[in-house]
Automatic annotation (TrEMBL):
It comes from the Bacteria. Transmembrane segments: none annotated. One of its GO terms (molecular function) is acyltransferase activity, transferring groups other than amino-acyl groups. Pfam families: Acetyltransf_3. This is N-acetyltransferase domain-containing protein. InterPro entries: Acyl_CoA_acyltransferase, GNAT_dom, N-acetyltransferase. It comes from Flavonifractor plautii (Fusobacterium plautii). Residues 13-70 form the N-acetyltransferase domain.
Length: 100
């Protein structure tokens, strides 16, 4: 997790994940992200969590949706590791939303 988003009006953390291709399709990431969200809100007292995916990564988008996160914004970002720019879509969940 990384703290840097302020668009929700409260300090928030960002969740990131990746998984070896031979482990795809086993439901591991949604299970892990759900537990990270539970731990962040219930045990650590975080108020908001973000996650983002690059345009075209439908599986990552689906993970965020399965975990109760909702779309918040999109923006073009520099991806330094790749030396290019990409359209990133941000999803988030607040503690209040998670408690419902």
């Amino acid at each position: 997790m990384d703290r840097h988003r302020t668009e929700l009006g409260t300090p928030s953390e960002e969740i990131g994940y990746s998984l070896a291709r031979d482990c795809w399709g086993q439901g591991l990431i949604p299970e892990a992200v759900k537990e990270i969200i539970r731990h962040a809100f219930a045990d650590l007292g975080y108020q908001a969590l973000w996650a983002a995916y690059y345009d075209g990564n439908r599986k990552s988008k689906r993970v965020m949706q399965k975990c109760g996160m909702t779309y918040r914004l999109s923006r073009i970002e520099a991806v330094e590791q790749l030396g290019e720019t990409r359209l990133a879509h941000y999803f988030a969940a607040t503690r209040r939303e998670w408690e419902r």
